[in-house]
Structure formats: structure tokens, C-alpha cells
Amino acid sequence: MSSSSENSLSPVSPASEAGTVAVALAALLLGAVAMGVSPVFVRYAEVGPFTSAFYRVTLSLPLLALWAHLEAGGQAPARWDRATLLAGLFFAGDLVFWHLAIVNTTMANATFLATMAPVWVLLGSGLFIGEKVTRPMIAGLGLCLLGAGALVGSSVQMEPERLTGDIYGIITSIFFGAYFLAVRVARRKSRAGLILYRSTLVTAAALLVVALIMEDTFLPATWIGAAALVALAVISHTGGQGLLAYALGHLSAAFSSLVIFLEAVAAAFFGWLIFAETLSPLQIAGGGAILAGIWVARPRHRTTAPAVAADPATRP
């Protein structure tokens, strides 16, 4: 598809725009749940964390290639762009440092520090991609941070011997925040499936190198481990990241980044449901604060420019 056809926009009615935003919000919520369940699959993967991250992206490539082909409608795909390349590299960095944080500090510390990503997204939205950050978004972020603190804060322990792991957690949040910004910029020119397919190729190549250097077990021992890796690829990456990429075509990066907090809520819920991990009243209140923060920050009327590249479902 030529860039001129991609950049063409047709007028949309308020009702049509509201419907598109509602679909994007639903995609964002479902994507958060799909990404939030990923720790469950990692626990059953029977391979090291870097290898499971490699399988997560690599096994998703056939589905993503099919998605990109179907959404193109027989037209030539757009050229590679820098934002898509950076998205792939940023996501690889996110996964690598996330697993390094898990290994070198407590799970609570790693989770809490990783949820700082929206802070970087809000800062970067105005500085790097030219999107306005509204007061409701800032207020919503504040509520979400309070909620995240309540959700995992009781388990957070700042100790000198875990400082390296804590630093890895902060680096994770920077990479994930940069990933949001890169995908948002890429969605101005290309469709979700193509962006995710191409960025995943980059991520897979980077993670292959890391896995070969860092680990020596590359195959799961049982069918349960293999099934967990497939589920990680299909549900958490193709489903979760795919829905996120779609939503970023219609919602601002700043608001969409709050999905990270929903991942923490979803992870806590699945930990309770599957592994019988207890949830204290404070943690439940923290989850409620996160939901309230997202409600406060929700889009009102038109808060961002519409996506430049139309998705098949919204193409005139």
C-alpha cells in the first residue's frame, strides 16, 4: 500500500468515533488480561526465562504473518519504518531486563518497579511524539500508582543485596514505556498486524542471541511445558500484544500505558484463581484504585488524533 493511501482519512461521525473508541477500550482490557496471565504459562514452561521469552515471540510469528497478510487485503505492505524496528528492540529489552529483575530481586519488587512504565510514557508523550497529556490522565496515573503500591507494596523490600535487581526493574519500565511510544508512532503509518509481525521478528532475533548466551536448556521436558509455551505465544503475545497494538491506533499512548497496571491486577487474580495465592483486603483495594484510575483517565470526546492507518474493521 502506498503511503498516500495509508495517510488518507475519511470524515467520521461522533457516533462512529465513539464506537471505535469503545472497541479500542475493550481491546485494551482484553489485552491486559491476556498479558497478565503470562506468568502462569512461564511457571509451567520447563525452560529458562530467556528461552521462554524467545519461544513466546517466535511461536507467534506464523499467526502474526497470517494476520498481516489478511489485513493487507492483497495490497503491498508499507515499507519498514524506524518506529517498528525500535518497537521490536524495546520489547526485547523489556523482556530481558524483566527476567533479570525476577532473578535478582523479589517478584514484588520487580513487579512494582516495572509498573513505573506509564510515568515514562506520560513524560515521553509530550517530549517525543507530540501528544498532549491531560490532567485526568495525570490524576489517573496517580491513582494507579497508589493502587499498584497497595497491590504489591506490602511485599516490596528495599535491601542492598537486591539493588542490582531493583535497577533491572527500573530499566524494564523504561524499555516498556519506550515500546508504547514506538508502537503508537508506528500505528500512524501502518496497521496493527504488520507492525506486530515485523517488530516480533526483531524481538525474536534479539532474544535468540540472549537465550543462546545465557541458558543451556532449550526444549521443555513434557507436553505440559510445550503447551505452556504455545499458550504464551498465542494468548499473551499474539492476543495480548496484538490487542494492545490495535488499541494504540485509536487511543493515546499515555492512556493506553495504564494497561500495565491492569496486568498486575490480572496477574494477582490468576495467582489467586490457579495457585490459591491469598489476596489481602489492601490488595483488593489496590486493584480497585487501579480500575478507578483508568476510569478517571478514560478518553473524553477526542483527546488524540485518530490513527492514520485504518484497521480492516474500521476501513471506510
From TrEMBL:
- Residue limits of the EamA domain? 25-149, 164-296
**Keyword set includes Membrane:** yes
Task: Give one Pfam family.
Answer: EamA
Leader peptide range in chain numbering? none
Q: Which UniProt keywords apply?
A: Membrane, Transmembrane, Transmembrane helix
**Regions that span the bilayer:** 21-41, 82-101, 107-130, 137-155, 167-183, 195-214, 220-239, 251-275, 281-297
User: Which cellular component terms (GO) are annotated to the entry?
Assistant: membrane
Q: Which InterPro entries match?
A: EamA_dom, EmrE-like
Q: What is this protein called?
A: Drug/metabolite transporter (DMT)-like permease
The protein's organism comes out as Breoghania corrubedonensis
